[in-house]
Amino acid sequence: MAADLERLSRELHRHGYTVAGDLVGALTETLRHNNLLPDFLSDEPVAAALPDHIGNVVRSVRRGRRETQADVAQRAGMHPYSLRRIEAGQTNPRVGTIQALAVALDVPVSVLLKKPTPDI
Prior knowledge:
This protein has about 120 residues and is mainly alpha-helical. Helices cover about 70% and strands about 0% of the residues. The chain has one domain (about 1-115): lambda repressor-like DNA-binding domains (434 Repressor (Amino-terminal Domain)). It starts with a helix and ends in a 7-residue tail after the last helix.
């Protein structure tokens, strides 16, 4: 299932699409079909909730590893300002950007899309 999501992400990026508009609906349906849609997104407009969620997860992982925005941005092939905007939820990252961040943080893309579970 995760492999299908990765393949979908690569295809969307290859065609230059961003996670916005109709594509959010398509991605949402794919996530829902594969039981990967975070519960907190199912009742909200995904287009509004996803950028904040991705930014929060990226920031949390980066800070947990005591890395700077500049370090992660460099590994992801982006400007640190772009990473700051993503972490602040001020931009809707492209599928390719989400993939690049996952690689830079050494986490699966699904980590950036799933609601984190609380530590017990």
